[in-house]
Specification:
- By secondary structure, this protein is α+β, with helices and mostly antiparallel strands.
- A 5-stranded antiparallel sheet has the order 2-1-5-4-3. A 5-stranded antiparallel sheet has the order 7-6-10-9-8, with helices on both faces.
- Helix 1 runs antiparallel to helix 3.
- The radius of gyration is 46 Å and the shape is elongated.
- The termini are far apart.
Length: 365
């Protein structure tokens, strides 16, 4: 709801009412004394009053609009100023010699600037020589990104710095913009270690985001699907599988529903309804290969997550199991045969024993 401006509204009503009264008086004068002429009446006291009120009303309207624009610009400037002060980007203005004129909160915290002292930016950032050698600054008075390592209280900070020369009241001043890459560098180092760890594993591993795009994978996964890195990185998981050398055209036609179900599962992040781990087999180079896949979920925050899959080749294990099963079957068959032979032998011995008993009985008689 807009705030009611009492004095401004009263003044507007008074000007409008006075203008209306003056217009009525001037019109009445024109009707009652037509012989005096329009221009003569225009310069009469009533006419002059009417003209003055018209110009007053115009000036008031112009003043109100100008004031409104100035207030709007002031709010914009204030919002811009506050956003610069609270920005996570370092902002510093200095004179051409480097004496700091103004800096935002991020710059003060990063460079540990104390406003109670007269500080030269080049005493904190030793980049003056780089500026003098920078061709972009020499030609266009603005630099390319300068990477600078700053030591503060024994700790290193990696900064990306941009410098531009601008004019203020025909006096050159320097604008410094920079961001702190220290945390980003740490994250990059962690990411490199994570990728190196992934690539040491023989099992294919892949991580996808909730939209189904591949975010991380190892070299074993590239070999498994038979594709180059650029054909996998940031691509849809289902698309990578379809483009891989794992399936033929006939198999792809049958796997459409499975891919659709897979995309749905990735979108919801619910793997509780799936068989996990899951065994499957693929014909590769006219050889049947047996695999087992294990799904897992990595929660990044309340809404974001990654789904991962580890694929283990169990062909040799499956072959060993099949050999053991065959040996068990052969052993069972041999046991059955030997058991049958033993049963036959026992039966024969039983018949012989019966005959001997009979013969012995006959002799006694």
């Amino acid at each position: 709801m807009k705030k009611f401006k009492f004095f401004s509204s009263i003044l507007s009503m008074l000007i409008f009412f006075s203008l209306l009264v003056s217009f009525v008086s001037f019109s009445n004068l024109l009707i009652n004394r037509p012989e005096q002429g329009f221009f003569a009446m225009l310069f009469s006291p009533v006419g002059l009053c009417f003209i003055i009120l018209i110009f007053t009303a115009i000036a008031y309207l112009f003043h109100s609009q100008t004031l409104k624009n100035l207030l709007s610009n002031y709010d914009l400037i204030k919002a811009t100023h506050n956003s610069i002060l609270d920005s996570s980007l370092g902002f510093i203005l200095s004179n051409i010699d480097g004496r700091i004129i103004i800096s935002n909160n991020f710059a003060k915290e990063t460079l540990e600037i104390n406003e109670s002292y007269d500080i030269n930016i080049f005493e904190i950032l030793s980049i003056k020589e780089k500026l003098e050698e920078d061709q972009g600054f020499i030609n266009n008075r603005e630099t390319t990104i300068i990477k600078h390592i700053l030591k503060v209280k024994g700790k290193e900070k990696v900064l990306n710095i941009f410098v531009k020369e601008i004019e203020n009241d025909h006096e050159p001043i320097l604008l410094f913009l920079f961001n702190d890459l220290t945390e980003s560098k740490k994250l990059l180092e962690v990411e490199k270690r994570f990728k190196a760890l992934l690539n040491t594993l023989d099992e294919p591993i892949v991580l996808v985001n909730k939209y189904g795009y591949i975010k991380e994978f190892n070299s074993a996964f590239s070999e498994f699907v038979g594709l180059e890195t650029q054909q996998i990185e940031n691509q849809k998981f289902s698309k990578v599988l379809m483009n891989s050398k794992l399936f033929g055209f006939k198999e792809l036609g049958k796997l459409g529903d499975i891919f659709e179900k897979m995309d749905e599962t990735i979108g919801t992040g619910d793997i509780s309804t799936l068989i996990n781990p899951f065994k499957f087999e693929i014909i590769q180079n006219q050889t049947k290969r047996h695999y087992i896949k294990k799904l897992f979920k990595v929660n990044l925050n309340e809404e974001d997550y990654l789904l991962g899959c580890i694929i283990s080749d169990i062909t040799e294990l499956q072959s060993t199991i099949e050999k053991l099963n065959n040996l068990n079957a052969e052993l069972e068959q041999k046991i059955k045969e030997k058991t049958k032979e033993l049963e036959d032998t026992i039966e024969k011995l039983s018949e012989i024993n019966s005959l001997l008993k009979k013969e012995n009985q006959e002799r006694k008689e």
